[in-house]
Amino acid sequence: MITVMKFGGTSVGSAEALKRVANIIAQKEGEKVVVVSAMSGITNFLVNVAENPQLNLDTVVDQFAEKHLMTAAQLFEGDTYEEFRTEFDSRLEKFKKAVSADRNDPYYVDALTSQGERFSSLMLAYVLRDMGEKSVAITSEDAGIYAVGAPTSGSADLLITASGMTMKVKPLLAMGVIPIVTGFYGINSEGRPLTFGRGGSDYSAAVVANAIDADMLEIWTDVDGFMSADPRIIPDAIKIDEMNFGEAAELAYFGAKVLHPRTIEPVRLKHIPLKVKNSFKPDEPGTLIHHLRKSKNALLKSVAAKTDLSIITISSAEIAYRPAMVARIIDKIAEINVIIYSISTSLSTVAFLVHNNDVKLTLRQLNGLSGGDIERIDVKNNVALICAVGDNLLDKCGVSGDIFSAVKDAEANVEMISEGASDVSLNFVVPMSKVVDVVRTLHEKYIGEAE
Ligand code: ASP
Ligand code: MG
């Protein structure tokens, strides 16, 4: 039985948290591989350094070292501290190189922002060793995690990573060693660090689970699991005990900030079950996510909302008969990396859902479209996307009618509708002012007696 256990920034954010986590790891039966984030606040600190070339680099190095050494001083003494310091200092030399490298290097940001995980993993390995466990800190380079893609938005190459990790990590497990692997990045074909985007350590852990054919992936975080709604809106929201990969993927993408949405795919591919657990309450069962489907009586399992969005509507005669035009519009938006949350078209309009903050940039980009094809662009700010998730939702007859009757009860006007790509979610847009009412009404009517 191999378990991959991932701990986030708050779970490794202090001496106390590191000890708590080390206990959780030590108590786990069987073989285990651990993946960690940087200590909380560290990646933000590094991003800030990357964005501000005027900062004094000696001060930056001192601040970075101090944050880790203060914690280490609370954890280690005597020989353990000395040994730790030797490895720490050699990693700090590499940190200095990364921070003072050429900022025009396309991988400068990746090399710098991926530094935090190298230090949190080292500390956790030493805490475990201090407890009498066999443990080593191992970087993504040494673990054989390979990445492809553009700087700061890499993806793992699952096949090459599988062979890399089989050679480099599996033998450690056979010797009873617990490897503590750096999350957040892999190395590309040139051997350069490539990060997986902010919050990417969850994804790293899923990649590791896939690569070593784990039996279970545990994502340890600071919440109890997925909830039936945001507890700030619905105080009696319930924790979801179990759901399938599709439901979790939609929820993670559209609202619930429990898990990075990219975490699902690498484990879903190999049917590896995933558990979300709270490292501050290790005895709580958390949420189990797996490929099985269970029919429940309740229509919905969860309702999430993605707020602060805008609808950009482009009008032009007979857009529907000019398919190349929709393609050109999408290409233009893709050039600036703006995420489109939903699209709908009619004879003479095409409407996109984007984040409020991306509207200006998108409009500027669309103005660059040539040929006077666009007759008008309208923007409706401050809308929200409601994501109603339930097992087999769209196979059930009359579901849309039920859901929209609840929306009517909340006196909200639906602006746009889209089904989730899987058959587990129905997504629609309402004004921000109605979000709370809609979520509450749906929750009252269709969730509750579910579990
Ligand atoms: N440390 C990285 C970040 O803050 C990755 C992660 O925590 O998941 O984005
Ligand atoms: Mg995280």
Explain briefly what this protein structure is:
The protein is α/β, with parallel strands linked by helices and 451 residues long. The chain contains 16 helices and 18 strands.
Write up what this structure looks like.
With 451 residues, the protein is of the alpha/beta class. The protein folds into two domains: 2-222, Carbamate kinase (3-Layer(aba) Sandwich); 302-448, VC0802-like (2-Layer Sandwich), CATH 3.30.2130. It has helices at residues 15-27, 42-51, 57-75, 78-99, 108-113, 115-130, 140-143, 158-168, 170-174, 201-211, 245-254, 264-269, 323-335, 359-367, 399-409, 435-446; strands at 2-7, 31-36, 135-138, 147-148, 155-156, 178-182, 185-187, 193-195, 216-221, 242-244, 274-278, 287-290, 302-315, 342-345, 349-355, 376-389, 416-419, 425-431. An eight-stranded mixed sheet has the order 3-6-2-1-9-11-12-10, with helices on both faces. Strands 14-15-13-16-18-17 form a six-stranded antiparallel sheet. A hairpin with an 8-residue loop joins strand 11 (274-278) and strand 12. The protein is globular, with a radius of gyration of 24 Å. The structure holds aspartic acid (ASP) and magnesium ion. Residues 8-9, 37-38, 43, 116, 183-184, 198-202 line the site of aspartic acid (ASP). Magnesium ion (MG) is lined by residues 8-9, 37, 199, 201.
